[in-house]
Amino acid sequence: MSFQTTDSKKEEYRKYLEKSGVIDQLTRVLVGLYEEPEKPSNAIDFIKRYLGTPSDIDTETLRAEYEALKERNAQLEREVEELRQELENIRPSD
What we know:
There is one protein chain. The protein is mainly α. 77% of the residues lie in helices and 0% in strands. It folds into two domains: 1-56, no CATH class; 57-94. InterPro entries: AMY1.
């Protein structure tokens, strides 16, 4: 019984990969690597480039920028809320 469950889960996952286009994209990447006249020394980097993933990104800089922007966003949200409260106090009650 466990065998059928495992097989059905595998089949369900395979269908998911096929439906979402993962299998097609991986096939294209592998065919591209196969057809490459000079095989790259690092196949993983080739695959990343083929899929459009830049390899020269400084993640620490991006992380720091993200944290700064997140803090700035929180600050702006606080300012908006303060201004809303101020506007509520200024408006005459109906």
